[in-house]
Amino acid sequence: MTRLSVRHATTYSYAKPVRLGDHRLMFRPHDSHDLRLIGTGLTITPPATAIRWLHDVFGNSVAIVCFDVETTRLEIVSTVEIELFPPERPDFPIEPYARTYPFSYSAEEVPDLARTLERHYPDPDHRVDAWAKQFVVPDGTSEGGLIDTAQLLARMTLGIKDGFTYVAREAEGTQTPVETLQLGSGTCRDFALLMMEAVRSLGFAARFVSGYLYDPAVDGAAADTVGAGATHAWVQVYLPGAGWVEFDPTNGIVGSQHLIRVAVTRDPSQAIPLAGTWFGAPSDYLGMTVSVEVTARRNAGEPAGSPAGPPVVPSCGQAAPVPPAADRTAADQPPAEAPAA
Residue 12 and residue 231: Cα distance in Å, rounded? Predict the structure, then answer.
């Protein structure tokens, strides 16, 4: 078990006071058998009028933050404490019929997997198809030239890590898979989308995952990972018997070790960590800064912080109580939480 703390801070700056509209936050990790959510916090400056919580169509936890204020600066800081329980090494008990490629999903699973099996981006010259097929090669240790399913996916994961150049990019949006192939470079979300569309071209069901990456080098250990200073993205592939398995093509990681799931979606556009509106002249916007810190908790006996529960604040559209003067830098009173991607 590994206990980790995540601090995700976003600051927007404006040349003169602008009126803030609603903002949508995805900062709360998926609580599961391999990830336990221990404590969360959410601080917003200037204070929000109200916060409303919901689950989106994929079951991700989303906070809608409402404002009734003008400001030159908006800062949103999410803190999360979790415990990870990943296996020491990837161990996927794939059903016998799916251990070699190709295979077909069961009739019971296909209706629920349908949209994650579909290609979402044009590939008129079949470049993604051709690139994906290079990894469909027989396993040298098997008789009869069989293609091992797990090895195929591992080869593709490492193929992206070794064959492409990671380049950080703050601009919004994601490159199409064809653009990533042409450029030979991209961000973690570009690589995740390329792999997702590539495995879909081979008949696998795949989902986009956004969250955080723990880099042991932050705490002084030897490591060779990239993408830990911001939100991170990777892929889940559905394998019968093993379920949704994590593949991080940016770092060549197979399995969930060091990966903190926040949002799981069909397409990258549905996993935006923070989005919102403001009202003013376009020239008023000065920029945005984002900082993500994921560190190991050194003293497991320390208090975990506020319990993981929804903040006690009114729903959007309802009047909010005015906090005491000493607390007016916070949008909500503890315990507070929010989901991130």
Answer: 17
